[in-house]
């Protein structure tokens, strides 16, 4: 297996150079995929990289909305998603028609949309946010405006608690993070009383209120590097443990629950990355009538954060 991966890696690196490509990977990707990437990060890091790269081709190892974000920000580049079935169930919990209906009911509202959403939904939004900057984006909105927060009710609740602003919440959620329950945290705290606990803001409020840090995936990596604690209990998708352990070989990382797996994040494999580069598949393309307004909402976010 190791040998097989080495051969695949060498082929990927060769093709990557020939095609002037960059490989971006989300922190939840399989360890072997994170290891061949030029850059691994959270959604905010990855969107910044996608906007700034000189490469002609971006191979996006993540889920569909992430590759779409790269395509929105870099319209002249080829953006490849190695598995077209890698979606995000939360992103599918809102569509442009239902958002338009909701906007009609709240005509004065500013629409703040989590990047875990389709390009069509972003195009209907005023500003985007990620898990790393949701509170900052919400706080930047004039106090006399209503705010409609789409689609993650839990990230919205967290931003509401951080800023003191009242938000109209869309009832979406991440099925993976919803599996993390307060009982899991309490049990882990009893097992490891000296440990620090960090979770992702997609977790339920009953969970985020119990912990030492509520952070994006890259925020969790930074917390792990900086904390004095030797044991860190981690409440997010299990793929992050690869990076955490690699960057902090002397610290111990304990998942809050082994059930926190996002199957969509595991669709991309080394074989598919190689196939994607050699066949130029699957290209993520967005029509200009959607891309231009979606880019405005993303650029507003990048200006705020
Ligand atoms: P981050 O932006 O924190 O990496 O989160 C993305 C995501 O999909 C979390 O489930
Ligand atoms: Fe979507 Fe949740 Fe998977 Fe993130 S972990 S991509 S929010 S389903």
Describe, in plain words, how this protein is organized in 3D.
- The protein is of the alpha/beta class and 305 residues long.
- It has 3 domains: 2-86 and 265-286, NadA-like (Rossmann fold, 3-Layer(aba) Sandwich), CATH 3.40.50; 91-173, Rossmann fold (3-Layer(aba) Sandwich), CATH 3.40.50; 176-261, Rossmann fold (3-Layer(aba) Sandwich).
- The chain has helices at residues 2-18, 31-36, 43-52, 64-73, 96-105, 119-123, 134-139, 153-163, 175-178, 182-191, 205-208, 217-226, 240-247, 270-279, 288-304, and strands at 21-26, 39-41, 57-61, 78-80, 110-114, 127-129, 147-150, 168-169, 196-199, 213-214, 231-235, 252-255.
- Strands 2-1-3-4 form a 4-stranded parallel β-sheet, sandwiched between helices.
- Helix 1 (2-18) packs parallel to helix 14 (270-279), helix 3 (43-52) packs parallel to helix 4 (64-73) and helix 12 runs parallel beside helix 13.
- It is globular and about 55 Å long.
- It starts with a helix and ends with a helix.
- Iron/sulfur cluster is lined by residues 63, 88-90, 116, 174, 176-177, 202, 237, 262, 264-265.
- Iron/sulfur cluster (SF4) binds next to helix 9.
Strand elements, count: 12
Strand content: 15-25%
In angstroms, what is the radius of gyration? 19 Å
CATH architecture of the largest domain: 3-Layer(aba) Sandwich
Strand arrangement within the widest β-sheet reads: 2-1-3-4
| CATH superfamily heading of the largest domain | NadA-like
Indicate the mean pLDDT: 97
Report the uncertain regions.
none
Q: Bound compounds, please?
A: 1,3-dihydroxyacetonephosphate, iron/sulfur cluster
Secondary-structure-based class equals alpha/beta
Number of domains: 3
Order of helices and strands: HEHEHEHEHEHEHEHEHHEHEHEHEHH
- Supply the CATH class of the largest domain: Alpha Beta
- Note the total helix count: 15
N/C terminus separation? 42 Å
Helix content: 40-55%
Give the overall silhouette.
globular
Largest sheet: 4 strands, parallel
CATH topology heading of the largest domain: Rossmann fold
């Amino acid at each position: 297996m190791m040998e097989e991966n080495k051969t695949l890696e060498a082929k990927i690196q060769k093709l990557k150079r020939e095609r002037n490509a960059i490989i971006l990977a989300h922190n939840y990707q399989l360890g072997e995929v994170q290891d061949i990437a030029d850059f691994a990060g959270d959604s905010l890091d990855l969107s910044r990289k996608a906007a700034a790269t000189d490469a002609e081709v971006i191979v996006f190892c993540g889920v569909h909305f992430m590759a779409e974000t790269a395509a929105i920000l870099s319209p002249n580049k080829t953006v490849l998603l190695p598995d077209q079935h890698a979606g995000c169930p939360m992103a599918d919990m809102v569509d442009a028609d239902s958002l338009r209906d909701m906007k009609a009911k709240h005509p004065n509202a500013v629409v703040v949309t989590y990047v875990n959403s389709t390009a069509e939904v972003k195009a209907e939004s005023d500003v985007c946010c990620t898990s790393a900057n949701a509170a900052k984006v919400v706080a930047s909105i004039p106090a006399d405006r209503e705010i409609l927060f789409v689609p993650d009710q839990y990230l919205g609740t967290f931003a509401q608690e951080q800023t003191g602003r009242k938000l109209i919440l869309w009832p979406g959620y991440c099925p993976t993070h919803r599996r993390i329950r307060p009982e899991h945290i309490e049990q882990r705290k009893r097992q490891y009383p000296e440990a620090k606990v960090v979770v992702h803001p997609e977790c339920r409020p009953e969970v985020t209120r119990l912990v030492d840090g509520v952070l994006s995936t890259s925020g969790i990596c930074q917390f792990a590097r900086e904390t004095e604690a030797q044991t860190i209990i981690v409440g997010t998708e299990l793929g992050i443990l690869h990076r955490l352990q690699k960057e902090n070989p002397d610290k111990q990382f304990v998942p809050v629950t082994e059930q926190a797996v996002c199957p969509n994040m595991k669709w991309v494999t080394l074989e598919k990355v190689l196939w994607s580069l050699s066949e130029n598949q699957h290209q993520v393309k967005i029509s200009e009538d959607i891309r231009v307004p979606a880019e405005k909402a993303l650029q507003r976010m990048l200006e705020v954060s």
